[in-house]
Amino acid sequence: MMSRLFHAGLLLALCSLPLLAAPRVDTLDRQQAAALVEASQYRQPTLIALWSLECGYCKQNLAHFRQAQQAYPQLRLITVASEPRLAEHAALLASHGLDGQHYAYADEAPEAMAYALDPRWRGELPRTLLFDGHGGQQALSGVLDMQRITQLLELAD
Amino acid sequence: MLKTFCRWLAPGLLSAIPLLAAAMGNPQPGLGVGLAAGSDGALYAALVRDGHLQILRSNDLGQHWQAHSQVNSQAEAIADDAENAPQLSVSAQGALYVSWSRRFAERFTGDIRFARAENGRDFSTPRTVHRDQRLTGHSFVRQHLDRNGRLWLVWIDGRERLDNPAYQGSALYASHSDDGGRQFVAEYKLVDHSCQCCRLALTERADGSLLLFWRQLFEQGQRDHALLPLGRERPGELRRATFDGWQVDACPHHGPALAEDSQGRLHALWFSPHGEQGPLFYGQLADGQVLGQRSLGGPRAGHGAVASLGQRVVLLWKEFDGQRTQLLAEISEDGGEHFRRVPLASSQGPSDHPRLLRVGNQLLPVWHSTDHGLKGYPLP
């Protein structure tokens, strides 16, 4: 009996590997969001990608960020889904093969989160926060391709 | 053997996913609400609860609400976010018409649904409005019942992309019914290359024609706004209505608002986060230009509503002040020459877009916030 249960458990574990391999997505409240964008903590080039499941351009960006990650291993990537956490977030991040820290909004007013992350951001997506690793930071809306990311973060030098 | 076992196990795992999702996060229920006022002054609201559209009724301008009826007996995935909220109209005889965007499991796909209650309470089985059955996006429906009893539905439609992946943006399609929603004409295309994710504004003019106002993709990816008259027989000509030249490959998820006053002036609110000014703009739309364009509110103002009654013009929006989300209004008694500012409410938690209703001889702001629930805010 025990052995059968063990085997069933093993099979369950094997079958659900793709689910288990999905990255962890933590929730972020407004205080944590404000802490996350504190530039002085970043000692290496870092991207914070703000995205949502409904945003098509965001997925183009995630693909570009994956490319950038592969080309420049020193690049650190953080993603923040600008909506309450859903199982689909982890699934989509897994399908893009993105390494990094991943977050989604806690149960907060989206405008409070937007203000904490980037007071100049008006909610349009994708929005990308770039940290050069020396205390410098900038923020841009829209699609960023590899060339632009490389140039903005001076990755090629 | 493992494969067979997995196939057997898979349905069990799949059925666990919604539960997992519920356990993982705490996705807030959608706050998007559809609102309408009856000729007797009663307010009606359509809200989504667990896949069902519930109708609430208020006899005191939105201070208290009573459960009135349920639209769909079978639960379905009804879009209930503020930008893509259910639509509700009440006829002069008290019939209720409801439409909404249903989401399919695959992202960006869905259809436009409709149900009617001739007696104002017992709803027909919901039906899909359009003939197009392909798996693509039909969403952001906007409904309007005009003074002649024609029921209009306009929505954002993704079908052009199925045949042409290089197609820019989405198309706008429309249908209408002249028999209280029993039958709808086959849908027809209004325009190409609209923005994909911004609510549409539809307003009725003094002459009974409708004006559609929405975010359009212009040359070089400029996401400005356009106007299209919808005559009884055929749509008129598209004309560009805003000229901000905001150029970005991004989803603003932030549609405009429009109202006509008794002098025929078109009062518009729209969002365009370019330059250093606040992103929410007010202006009067004229031929080829905007008169009196100015920022409304500060750098975090958004999701405006506008309505007019006689010479009164009301601008309503929400704005985060660093701590709380404020509900603010500007009121003009002279057709938009002069405005005074009136703070109405604030909420710490999430909230719906502010909405404006005409109830008899007044314009009434209504706001659905987690702090105060669904509530009317009568103006001075």
Automatic annotation (TrEMBL), chain A:
Keywords: Signal. Residues 1-21 form the signal peptide. It comes from the Bacteria. InterPro entries: Thioredoxin-like_sf. This is Thioredoxin domain-containing protein. It comes from Pseudomonas fluvialis.
From TrEMBL, chain B:
The keyword Lipoprotein applies. Residues 1-21 form the signal peptide. The keyword Cell wall biogenesis/degradation does not apply. SUPFAM superfamilies: Sialidases (SSF50939). It comes from Pseudomonas fluvialis. This is Lipoprotein. Gene3D superfamilies: 2.120.10.10. Keywords: Lipoprotein, Signal.
